[in-house]
Write a structure and sequence with these properties.
Length: 240
Amino acid sequence: MQSAHQQKGTALQRAVVDSVAEAIGRETRSNPVLPGTGGPAGNALLTAWTALVLLVLSLAELLTLFNVRGLISWHVGLGALLVPPAVMKTASTGWRMGRYYLGHAPYREAGPPPLLLRLLGPLVIVSTLGLLGTGVLLVLLGQDRSHSALFSVLGFRADWVSAHQGFFAVWVVAVGLHLLGRIVPALRITLAPGSTADVPGRWTRLLWFGAMAASAAVLAVALVHADGSWTSFHEFGRSD
């Protein structure tokens, strides 16, 4: 009989192997196709396309960090554009997870993600929503109130700006690992020839994307026009 230590080692090794196999496209999960919305296959398409939108916008947002002072309006606008797709991807992923754990047969047949990606998922969601949420809050509060201390412990002073920066540090690591595990499957689902031809629910997915784009545009315009107190700051921190 294997010892408990050996069993844990075997389970960890299997989890890593499964994650790598799916990440490089060597193994794929089945996505049953159902009438109407497409079922798991339709959900996978919606999630993958939304993820690609998030990837493009996130890369553009990261570029603004090279000159936040000069590109603050772009930083705020792109951050606002990220909010609706982040919420939609969280909702589509949550729907799939809920249907799986509630025992819905097609989603049980599709199966769960590899264990390591399941463990990483909550960190990705919390860091993403935390980063975007604190970013919106910084704009709404303005520069002065954003620097008001939330708490101070052992000489460490935290405010909303440092909370935003803390979420960013966690987000970079979590989303970077998530991207390594998901980019190949997402590209295969969305861009492989014939991958979407037989999946019902196309117009429903387009409607969701239209609503996402419209809400993103409205939010971006609103926040860019609300960020006046940040446009004259001298550094991403309290100016003297």
